[in-house]
Structure formats: structure tokens, C-alpha cells
Amino acid sequence: MSLLLRHILLALAALAAVVLLTTVVDPFTNVRIATVGYYLVAVAGLTLLTGGNGQISLGHGAFMFIGAYTVGLLVIYVPWFPFWLDLLLAGVTAGLAGMLTGAAAARLHGPYLAGATLGLAVGLPAITQRFPDFLGGSNGLAFTVNSLPAGLEVSQTQWQAWVVWTTALLVLVLLANVVRGRFGRMLRAVRDDEVAAAISGIHIGRSKIMAFLLSSACGGLAGGLQAFLLGTAAPGSFSVALSLSLLAAMVLGGVGSLWGALWGALALVYVPAWANDVTHSMDLSTNITQNLPLAVFGAVLVVVVLMFPRGIHGAVARLRQSIRKEKP
Question: Both ends of the chain: CA-CA distance in Å?
Fold first, then answer.
């Protein structure tokens, strides 16, 4: 069985599981399932960039911002476009922005690259204040995406979860084949030793720019899916905290692993949600209620990294190896 066919079959099995799950849970849980899906796309793109190519980005929330606003503006001003085209253009727009960012940052390394991308995350959402009539200012854009096919007897949240996860699984199939292919090997060679990669004929700058392009396109798709799910695109949703949370989720799940991106996305949604439920049940003050979920997520990140340096996926892989050794 070819690698591509195996990935497609796994994706179809995962989509079937998601469809089945969304039919037996409530609408609020469907929204959470969809949220995991678009975070998975963003974290998987960041995994390709950082884990696969060694470039640290603290600004991926900015690419989600671009994708969300692209979808919002297209829905409002070009309503005859089909939604799949809006999503595609969100990824393309963010990818072009990432390509320009990668070209500007191709000669930067380590904290210098991180600082440059952090500046992007800080500065880009501020442009909504410069064009309040077009971008909605601090309140952002509100819109409705009517993509539910006529005659399909499912709830709106079920359909949204299906769309998000179909897109997410398509992205994962693409990234899985990229990582396992020639381009993925080239990225890892640049990550491990740029001098040796250059001697072997790899164009360092070009590979870094391409990694940024693919990663930022994933961020744009994630932002577009978020806008589709929530019906809004507001600058407050794409703060620096979002970019840092995506990076933390990647580390928590396991740097360089697409399975780790899934674990990280699950943790990014459900750990703060669980902490939020606990704080509300304990009737704590508003200040504690607002900050405790983030603190709990940070504590989980520290504990997991200390116990399992390769993240959750590394721990799962180690457990699987132990089970195999114990079998006679």
C-alpha cells in the first residue's frame, strides 16, 4: 500500500469517527470538536515550520488573523463566492504573507527570528484601528456563512464540525506526505545543519521561505475556519497570547510530530475548558476565573515537558514500545 493511500484511508476513518461523534453529542460539544479541528491545522503548520525546519515563530496568530479577515471580507463583499473558495483564498493570502515574512527573515536565527515574528503578531491586528469602516475597528466583522446544503437534515454545528474536520484532515494528508517526501527531508537537513545542507546543494533561503509559506497557509486556513465557525473576525481573538498558545500546544504535543499537533490541539481546547468549569463550580472571583485556565495550561505544559521532553506523543510512543517489548 502506498504512503498516500494509507494516509487517505486514515483520514477517511478519522472523518467517519468525527461524523459519528457529532451525531451523539450536544451542539456545544460540536463547537468544541470543531475548535480542536482548526487549532489542529494551525499547530500542524507550526510543527512543519519549527519541528521540520527549525524556524521559531511567535507570530502565527497573525496568519490566523489574515485568514479570518479574508473570509469575513469575502463573505460580506463578495457573497456569491462559494465558501470553499473563500477558505482557499484565506490560505493563499496568508501563505503569500508568510512567504514575504520568510523572505525577510531568511537570514535570521533563534531569538532574532522569534522577535521578528512576534512583532508581526503585535502589529498586524492594530491595522483594524486604521481602517475601522472596512475592518470593523475593535469590534471586528460579524457575518453569517450559509454553507449548509439544502435538504441535509443535520444541525448547523454538526455541519460546521464536518467542514472544519474535512479541511483539517485534507491538510494533514498533504503535510504528512510533504514531511515524508523529498521536500521534508530537505527541510530536516536545513534544520540539522545549514552548512552541510548547502554543501549538498540545498538552497537554504528558498527552503526556509517555502516552509514559511506552507506553515502560514495552514495558519490562514485555521483562521478562516475559525471565522466560519464563530461568524466573527475580531482583532481581540488574535492577540499575542494566541501565538504563544499555539507554540505551547506544539511543544506539549511533541515538536516535529503531526500526531503531536493533534494532542496539542486537544490540550489547547480541553485543558482550559476543564479549568474554567472547575473555577465556575468553586465560585471564585472574576479575576481568578479569567486567569486560572491559562495558568493551568501553563502548569500542564511544564509538567509534561519535564516528565516527557518529547511531549505527549513521545510519551505515547514510549508506552507503545514498552508494551511491544513485554509481549512474548
Answer: 28
